[in-house]
């Protein structure tokens, strides 16, 4: 997804007000994800009794987008009822999130279809008659798979639910396949997570950067009863994914299990890029009213240097320098998992990542995964490999890299301006390489074949150097 200059699109999450599913959808819509395509995708979900509303609200003086999944009476929950959630000690002030500041609201009603789950009213009474759907991971998976979401959006939504199920299973002494998802498997959570996946797919990004999340303190009431904050599911998600929590002076929950699962499943890096160019900022409003926090999730869409660009930006691109090589042998990892891992490694800043076919001990055919990276992001990339492949060990070694001097350039062709890399050989002669991404962009723009464009760039480069 790199652009013609090899730069990548990154989403940078500012988690200083925490994160929830609806805040994330709202921020992505505010950034430019298509509301029309989102609503069309949500209309295909085989669940009923909800209405998705998008509006503008003012939160802490900031104009923000609000995404609200309004449930019919039968499915209603108390997620925004501060007095109920936090009791006497909670902030009783209830900010009415349907309040508008000159914005307009779009209502999308979904009352068709059927549910693949077992729904029943709870016997326990919180003083509010209410109703929870108890879905298992398999129930939720069936809903997502039967929907009309794109293949990529389904994959993203399933990844988020996979993380949620692992965290819930650990909290309740079950397995991801046997644990029952209470609030986190209810219609509003399914809609929020599918909406995040659809918007993210729509925005087409290479990286998701989340440095840390602010979290409040105290207790919160949920389907299980009173829970300490961070609630067990959030604590498990953050522990498993290495998400740093920053204590905030807030009595209440800032990070919901859905929010933490989104970060755990979709984050490609915790490190801010060395530099980035802001393309747009999106502000997603939270529903709960807390003091000492803006109550909005800001997501920044930025252009950052891709791996190739970083290479070109080395201080002295002609000088040898140390790099780290990570390697592991895999005989039990699927091609899908390996391909996904390589994509994640590249997006997280690996200089190179590839799999070489090998015949391993006991005559087993397998792959050697090889990753070249800077020492500074070795730990992050090793974590990615452990999380996404089946390996239980990684070898690391420091090597010297001897690059030829190179600089980014561009040449004019009949297909337009195309990016190249000019490399200086030890004898002083120059070689120009067409940048793959730029050649492909020209092919798509003009309908020309890869070979036609590639040769035109080579010819123009030779002429320019003559
Ligand atoms: O639904 C379940 S099982 C659930 C578990 C936990 C645990 O920590 S275990 C916590 N909660 C609370 O439910 C609400 C809604 O969460 P969403 O992620 O769906 O917004 C939230 O306050 C959680 O703390 C639910
Ligand atoms: Ni739970």
From TrEMBL:
Lyase keyword on record: yes
Gene3D superfamilies referenced in this protein's UniProt entry, alphabetically: Transcriptional regulatory protein pf0864 domain like (3.30.70.1380)
Reactions performed catalytically: Ni(II)-pyridinium-3,5-bisthiocarboxylate mononucleotide = pyridinium-3,5-bisthiocarboxylate mononucleotide + Ni(2+)
Compositional bias segments (type: Basic residues): 96-109
Pfam families: Ni_insertion
Region feature (Disordered): 91-135
Enzyme Commission identifier(s): 4.99.1.12
Species classification: Bacteria, Bacillati, Actinomycetota, Coriobacteriia, Coriobacteriales
Protein name per Swiss-Prot or TrEMBL: Pyridinium-3,5-bisthiocarboxylic acid mononucleotide nickel insertion protein
Function of the protein: Involved in the biosynthesis of a nickel-pincer cofactor ((SCS)Ni(II) pincer complex). Binds Ni(2+), and functions in nickel delivery to pyridinium-3,5-bisthiocarboxylic acid mononucleotide (P2TMN), to form the mature cofactor. Is thus probably required for the activation of nickel-pincer cofactor-dependent enzymes.
Entry superkingdom: Bacteria
């Amino acid at each position: 997804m790199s652009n013609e200059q090899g730069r990548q699109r990154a989403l940078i999450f500012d988690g200083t007000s925490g994160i929830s599913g609806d805040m994330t959808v709202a921020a992505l819509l505010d950034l430019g994800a298509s509301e029309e395509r989102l609503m069309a995708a949500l209309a295909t979900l085989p669940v009923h009794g909800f209405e998705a509303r998008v509006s503008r609200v003012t939160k802490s003086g900031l104009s923000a987008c609000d995404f609200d999944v309004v449930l019919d009476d039968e499915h209603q929950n108390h997620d925004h009822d501060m007095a109920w959630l936090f009791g006497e000690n909670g902030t009783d002030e209830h900010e009415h999130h349907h309040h508008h500041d000159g914005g307009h609201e779009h209502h999308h009603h979904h009352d068709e279809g059927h549910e693949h789950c077992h729904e029943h009213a709870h016997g326990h009474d919180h003083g509010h008659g209410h109703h929870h759907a108890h879905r298992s991971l398999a129930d939720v998976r069936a809903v997502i798979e039967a929907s009309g979401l794109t293949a990529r959006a389904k994959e993203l939504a399933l990844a988020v639910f996979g993380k949620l199920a692992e965290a819930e299973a650990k909290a309740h002494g079950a397995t991801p396949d046997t644990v029952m998802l209470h609030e986190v498997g209810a219609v509003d959570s399914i809609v929020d997570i599918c909406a995040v996946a659809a918007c993210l797919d729509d925005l087409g990004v290479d990286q998701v950067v989340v440095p840390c999340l602010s979290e409040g303190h105290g207790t919160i009431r949920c389907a299980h009863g009173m829970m300490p904050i961070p609630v067990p599911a959030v604590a498990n998600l953050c522990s498993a994914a290495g998400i740093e929590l920053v204590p905030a002076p807030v009595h209440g929950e800032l990070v919901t299990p859905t929010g933490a699962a989104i970060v755990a499943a979709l984050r490609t890096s915790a490190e801010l890029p060395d530099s980035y160019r802001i393309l747009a900022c999106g502000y997603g409003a939270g529903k709960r009213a807390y003091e000492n926090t803006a109550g909005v999730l800001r997501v920044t869409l930025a252009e950052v240097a891709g791996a190739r660009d970083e290479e070109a930006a080395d201080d002295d691109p002609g000088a040898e320098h140390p790099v780290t090589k990570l390697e592991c042998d895999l005989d039990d990892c699927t091609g899908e998992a390996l391909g996904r891992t390589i994509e994640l490694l590249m997006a997280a800043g690996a200089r190179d990542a590839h799999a070489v076919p090998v015949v391993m001990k006991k005559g087993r055919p397998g792959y050697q995964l090889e990753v070249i990276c800077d020492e500074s992001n070795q730990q992050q990339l090793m974590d990615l490999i452990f999380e996404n492949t089946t390996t239980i060990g990684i070898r690391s070694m420091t090597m010297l890299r001897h690059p030829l001097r190179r600089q980014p350039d561009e040449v004019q062709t009949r297909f337009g301006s195309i990016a190249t890399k000019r490399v200086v050989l030890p004898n002083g002669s120059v070689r120009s390489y067409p940048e793959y991404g730029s050649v492909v962009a020209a092919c798509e723009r003009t309908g020309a074949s890869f070979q036609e464009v590639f040769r035109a760039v080579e010819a123009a480069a030779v002429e320019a150097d003559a």
